[in-house]
Amino acid sequence: MITELIDYRSIPRVSNSDLTRLKEECLGYPPSARFVPQRAMQFGRAFHSHLLEPESVGGIIEQLLPDMKPVESGRLEQLTEQVRRDSFCNRYLRKSEKERVVLFTDPASELGCKARLDMVYTSPKKRNVLILDFKTTSARTQSQFLQSCYDYDYDRQVAFYIDSLRNSDSQEWAQTRQFRFVLIGVQKQKPHRLFAVDATSIPDFVDYGRKKYRFWLRKWKEQQQEDAGHWLRQAS
């Protein structure tokens, strides 16, 4: 898992996380004002590894959270067990591809992009796709988790990931008729409730997210062109 993480990051394509960093740079957010604190991001990565790649969790924890307290390690186990006990989540944990890397070209900007999806279930005839994405959350109610989906740009992520399949370089999902994307919030505090948001059923959620990621892809392309022009001026 650690090697795969490094390999994915080394692929010279634009990811949704790259767009988040670009947004923070353009809007002038200092490191302390990141939408998601670094510690929370590390815990979230460890949770994903514990859930999706349990055989490698020891290495991930050592890499990401070397000073993890026993109580935090126990909390990881509680959260993953809560997910596995849920019949819907457990079903697709068994049936889905996990940590699927997809390479695609955005048709609007013509930029090469990449995505790594938590879980993807493709129906036998490839007519339907279900994407599941897990989020650790401090939300205590369904409405709070739904609000966090807007606060943390999950609409942009949902659109980016769905379009990664639609525009995949492999054309594996070219004949797929329906894409469904469910965000699963896993409450970090007891009682560790699960919240589910079917993002594709919310009016305009995906369309608005698509507008957002394509705006930042245009900014990314403009920045690349500016950097190239600056390098040429320096070289001449």
Task: Describe the protein's architecture and organization.
The protein is an alpha+beta fold. It has a single domain, classed as Lambda Exonuclease, Chain A (Alpha-Beta Complex). It has nine helices and five strands; from the N terminus they run H-H-H-H-H-H-E-E-E-H-H-E-E-H. It has helices at 2-10, 16-27, 38-52, 57-64, 70-85, 87-95, 142-151, 154-166, 205-235, and strands spanning 97-105, 112-122, 128-137, 178-187, 194-198. The protein has a five-stranded mixed sheet, with helices on both faces. The protein starts with a helix and ends with a helix. The mean pLDDT is 86.
Task: Write a concise keyword list for the protein shown above.
236 residues; alpha+beta; Lambda Exonuclease, Chain A; five-stranded mixed β-sheet; 5 strands; 52% helix; globular
- Largest sheet composition: 5 strands, mixed
Radius of gyration: 18 Å
- Sheet with most strands: strand arrangement: 1-2-3-4-5
- Domain tally: 1
CATH architecture title: Alpha-Beta Complex
Tally of strands: 5
Q: Helix- and strand-based class?
A: alpha+beta
N-to-C span: 44 Å
CATH class: Alpha Beta
Approximate strand percentage: 15-25%
